[in-house]
Structure formats: C-alpha cells, structure tokens
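The data layer described in this paper is built around a simple, fixed record for each protein. Because each token names a local backbone shape, the row as a whole describes the fold. We quote a single record here, exactly as it is kept in our systems:

***
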Amino acid sequence: MAEISFLDSVNRNFDRAASFTNIPKGILAQIKACNAVYEIQFPVRIGQEVKVIQAFRAQHSHHRLPTKGGIRYSNMVNKDEVEALAALMTYKCAIVDVPFGGAKGGVAINPKDYTEEQLEKITRRYTTELIRKNFIGPGIDVPAPDYGTGPREMAWILDTYMTFKGGEIDAAGCVTGKPVNQNGIQGRTEATGRGVFYGLRELCDTESAMSKVGLTKGLAGKRVVIQGLGNVGMYTGLIMQKEGGIKIIGVAEYEGSIYSEDGIDIQQLLDYRKANNNSILGFPGSTTLQDRMSALELECDILIPAALENQITIDNVHRIKAKIIGEAANGPITAEAEEVLASKGTLVVPDMFLNAGGVTVSYFEWLKNLSHMRFGRMEKRFDSNMYSRLVATVEDLSGKRINDRERALLTHGADEVDLVRSGLEETMVSSFQQIWDVYSSRPEVATLRNAAFVVALEKISNDYANLGIFP
C-alpha cells in the first residue's frame, strides 16, 4: 500500500481531530485551507552558467498577522511540503499562544552544492522576489531558519530587506533567527532543542503519563535514542544530558547509526564527528548498526526523531520499540504509522507542540526588534541591587555570612538569555498542560496529537469569532 504524502498526512490528522470539536464545518474548512502560495522561478549566475532556481513561500493562515515560518534549503522542497509545514506552523503558533499565522518557505537546492558566495546570491534574490510580491515584512510575513539555513542566511535576508526598505523603523523585525550582533536574540540557536527538553521533561514529570507507558516518574535515567545531529538534535541531546540526566544509547545520522548501552556523550560525539570527516561511525565504545534507520528500532524509553519528515512509516513502524516518541522534527511519523503506534500504547508527543521552542523564541526576538531594546536592560541592575540588599538584611538578622559563590547566585539579575529561557519554559509547560487536560479528560480524543489539534483548532476558531469574520 502506497504511503500518503506529508500534506495528506497533516490533513488526515486535522480531519480526525476536527471530528472531536463542535466547530462549524465552514470555519474548519477555512482553518484547513492554505490561503496563499507563491511559487517562484528565478535565475542566478553560478560560475559561468545561469541556473534557474525554484522556490516557494506559503502563507497558510491570515487569521493573525504577521504570518511566521522558516525557510528551508533542500532538494526535496516542493509545493506540497511547504504547504504542509505552513499548516503545522499555524497550529503550532496557536498551541503556544504566539500571535502569528503559519507560513513556510523553501528553496529547492542542496546548500552543500554551492559556495558561500553563491548561497548569498540565491538568498538575496529569493528575498528580492518576496519583497516584490509583499510576502515579507515585520507586519506581513516573518521568515526564520529551518533545515539547511541559519543565522548567516537570515542576516542576508535582513540586509536585502533594509536595502529596499531604507528608513522603515521596524525593519529588523522582518526576519528572526538573526545573529545576536545583528538584532538577534540570545538563546535563539538552542531554542528548539531546549523546547524539546522542557516538553519531554514535563511529560515525564506527569505521573499519569508515566503510568500509561510503564515508566517511573521523572526524566533522569531514561534511555534515549536521537535521530539527527543538526541544530535541533544536537541541542536536544546536549541539554537533556546536562540538565535532564538522561542516558543516550543510540544516535543516527546521515552516514549511519551507532549504539552503546553504557551511554554516548553527545559533546564528545560531536567533537569526534568533526575530527573524522563528519562521521559518527567508529565512535569509541559504540557499536555500528546496520544502517542509519537501525537506531530507530532500538529498545529505549524515548525516541527523538530530529531529522526530516516521514521517518517512521507503515513499513518500519512495527519494529519501533520506544515507549515515548518525541517529534523534534516536523512530521517524522506518518498518519498511518501513528495509528499503529497508538494501538501499541506508544505515547507520541507531537511536533506541533514539541518543536515549538523555535517559533516561541522567534516571537521574543520579533518583540525585541519592535521594542528596539534588549530584554533585561531596564531591570537587571535594579533586581540585582534589590537582591543584594535582601541578602545583606538576612545576614545582619541571622548573624551569618554566605560565600561569594552563593552571593553571586542569589543576587544575579536576569540577563536576556535568562529571560528567554524562562519565557520558553513557561510556554512549553503551560502548553503541555493544556494538551494533557484535553487528552486526559476526553477519552475519545485518544492521542496527544489529536488533543494538540483540538487545542489549536478551538483557539483559531475563537480568533475568527473575535474578528467578526464569521457571524
């Protein structure tokens, strides 16, 4: 039986969850529809030749503006994929209460095939095309990094936009994920991975959730497998090991996968890979598995697909042994495969919630750009001085003194990164609780993905009602 497309999978999940709501069919149809897709073919001189580049930008929903979503560079980019990812962004923003509509962009290239100078040409020309059609702007549509792009590309986008829009006071808010020294925000690079950590930690701290899968409460000691060591997978592994106390027993990458029951130190693995032609194979103390998909089939507590979509399909789902799957990537499990996982009792933490850390911190960056001031500038010293006076008062009343390390910890005023992490943690914790309340109180919903969709659809429907678009 042929596997359905990524877009069909997203829409099938939508339709299933929509049946658990009382939202009128007309409004559901509007929420589901992609409002606008811009398909572009533009020429760029590469060496001595002119190459025609295909690119897209989809704006899924205009119920809130601006629309928001990343730009990916990949040979696999196509119209259906961009529409599917834009739809997920709409639902994701609603779940975490970020006031954006969903969007997504893609350029159909493999960035490894181009030099930095050539990538800059392509990025600037793509941005120019978006400007011409009014598909970018701080109040219109705000791109961000995605697969194959990063702060460098976002800086090129900003510079191109400002060239066309000189004097626009909020121009820096036209794109997020920028370098910190170019109107970016501290904590953005790690944001998606840190959000994955907060989301899985909250799940594992929920006793009723752990009872369902036969695990003890808490994240510490859980056996974890990670697929993908890109930005998301790398930070997820580093943060979960350092702050969560988990044991990573398997890692999969493009070149293959490895296993070690004693645990794999992610920082050491990253250093090894860098020194060994970008390969994790042969990492000391590990066993090389048959192929790059083999790690997904390891027996573990938590499996974290952090690569691309459609990694767990009807073809391999029966071999998946993880008790919890945390979707750090977008759409790594097809709709058909998830039905099998649900029947097995596997808890799937859906992408539209779990990887929302990126858009959450992008929202903070956008707010910083509109306010023209970094977070913490106004209050950091005031808070630090107040805490110092409180500590001094307690010392005087108790007759005891604390050491310098304790004093520094207690009197620290929040830096920008502290506030960003705090805001992200609050967002992920409160959003999980909303999803879990629906999941645990409405048995017919059946899965966390359905519960997340219900939360998103009800919020978006309320937005339409408040706008007065539908009487």
In short: The longest helix spans residues 416-441.
